[in-house]
Amino acid sequence: MDAGTTAAADWWANAICRMEPGVVELRGIPVQELIGSHGFVATIWLMVRGTSPSPREAALLEAAMVASVDHGPQAPSIAIARMTATCGVGLNNAMASGVNALGDSHGGAGQQCVELLSAIVSREEAGESLEAATEAVVTDFRKHSRYLPGFGHRFHPRDPRRDPLLGLVDEAVAEGVVAGNHLRAARAVEELLNKGRAKPIPMNIDGATAVIYAELGFPPPLARGLFVLSRSVGILAHAWEETTQGRRNKGPVPTSILPTVLPVQA
């Protein structure tokens, strides 16, 4: 290749996908070898990490992703996708609109919880007791936020997804699949939060999946990315259902309900 062609090829250099006539390789593995042998979740791992997970690792990741696919149309991302689907656009537009609503407040708690738990684990590895590390990290976090990501839920007194996920992590720790340090940190936070409280604040889905992502070695930003992939399934299902119902220009409330008019401020 001449210098210009080489520069153009180098511009898009990557270790993820090699494609040329008759060849498609994902992380160096011919795609025809992956088809039928790699599950979708294992392929996600391969693509973002560059290695293939063990069957137990893939099963744990799959459990976390299954648990997060949907939480009903009251979730902004789902509601937005359903409304967009009635506006004369395609499914891809409706899905993109829903995904674009997943930010720090709606969709970011898993990433934030991984950061929280990782900070506790780092301090413990540096020699602090788990209790001291937990109290220090939680105290610091509360200086800039009322909420601890991954704990408590505005709908569920106890998130129904929490216990099955943590049970799977307990099994994985017992079998040596994961170390369990982030699981211990999460339970330490939960214990600290509930000291002296009559009404408990249990870990929620974001906390439980954060434990799994952290135990499996995913960096915090990928925890959010994996949640987005998971929730995209629910977004697709809701957008498609809304499309099949034939409604046009669906708004956030029925047309019989008009917004309250606020007084004009001087």
TrEMBL record:
Q: PANTHER family recorded for this chain?
A: CITRATE SYNTHASE, CITRATE SYNTHASE, PEROXISOMAL
The text of the family note is: Belongs to the citrate synthase family.
Lineage here is: Bacteria, Bacillati, Actinomycetota, Actinomycetes, Pseudonocardiales
NCBIfam families membership: PRK06224.1-1 (NF004864)
Tagged with keyword Cytoplasm: no
Its protein name is Citryl-CoA lyase
Q: Name one Pfam family in it.
A: Citrate_synt
Q: Which CDD domains match?
A: CCL_ACL-C
